[in-house]
Amino acid sequence: EAQVTQNPRYLITVTGKKLTVTCSQNMNHEYMSWYRQDPGLGLRQIYYSMNVEVTDKGDVPEGYKVSRKEKRNFPLILESPSPNQTSLYFCASSLYGQGGNTYEQYFGPGTRLTVT
Amino acid sequence: AQSVAQPEDQVNVAEGNPLTVKCTYSVSGNPYLFWYVQYPNRGLQFLLKYITGDNLVKGSYGFEAEFNKSQTSFHLKKPSALVSDSTLYFCAVRVLSGSARQLTFGSGTQLTVLP
Q1: CA of A1: how far to CAs of A4, A7, A50, B27, B77, in Å?
Q2: Cβ within 8 Å, pair B102-A48
Q3: What pLDDT does residue A101 have?
Q4: pLDDT higher than threshold 50 for residue B100
Q5: DSSP line for B21-53
Q6: CB of B78 within 8 A of CB of B17?
């Protein structure tokens, strides 16, 4: 089954304790992205990657890191989480290639993060 | 910078009536427009997209959307609403120009279909 998986689905942590949220897709997609969803703000893009070793900042990258060492994986790293990073996080992937920006994205189920 | 506006946080419609969820956008260049739906405790699911060609786009579950370049709008429509259509809808825009290869979402519209 074609899917995007995220782990963990729920996480409660304390300020300053480094954490990683994993994202994996089995569709051989070039493009992957991380979003955070907050009430009234919709989804805001954190980082995206157009292929292995190619990443770029989205609209709200502060406090986050990403890496793309393999095509299927795109982990999100919070080196020193703070309470304002409490949010619902989504990973997504899509084809890129010749179609460029025309392809729809496939989303993971989300990770609900609480930082106290 | 590109942006998307969904002017209505909440839309209520009676079952069987037509529904419209509004979306307007602002981009430099030709837009690629998308509608996604989000069911509770799940990720977003793709509904339909406009890339080029016919301004009326048909998608999943009987939904369609009309692209209007002069009004910079991409409203989502369905001729006859179902109670099961009640959920959160997001409009999104993407454009290929320079480094603007991001997908920008609107703030979402909660659709409630009343039985």
Answers
A1: 10, 18, 23, 35, 30
A2: yes
A3: 65
A4: no
A5: E--EEE-SS--EEEEEEE-TTS-EEEEEEE-SS
A6: no
Residue A77 pLDDT exceeds 90: yes
CA pair distance B54, B21, nearest whole angstrom = 20
The answer to whether A115 touches A14, Cβ cutoff 8 Å, is yes
The 10s digit of each residue's pLDDT in A14-62 is 999 999 999 999 999 999 999 999 988 889 999 999 889 999 998 899 9
AA identity, residue B35: W
Q: Do A44 and B105 touch (CB under 8 A)?
A: yes
Q: Are B37 and B44 in contact (CB under 8 A)?
A: yes
Residue B73 has a pLDDT of 97
The nearest alpha carbon in chain B to A6 belongs to: B43
Tell me which DSSP letter residue A16 carries.
T
pLDDT at res. B96: 61
Mean pLDDT of chain B: 91
* The two three-digit tokens of residue A18, written as one number: 């480094």
The structure tokens 């949220």 sit at A21
Helix (H, G, I), strand (E, B) or coil at A94: strand
Q: Do residues A94 and A105 touch, judged by C-beta distance below 8 A?
A: yes
Q: Give bridge partners of residue A15 from the DSSP assignment.
A: none
Nearest CA in chain A to B2: A59
| Residue B72: CB atoms within 10 Å | 16
Residue A97: per-residue pLDDT = 66
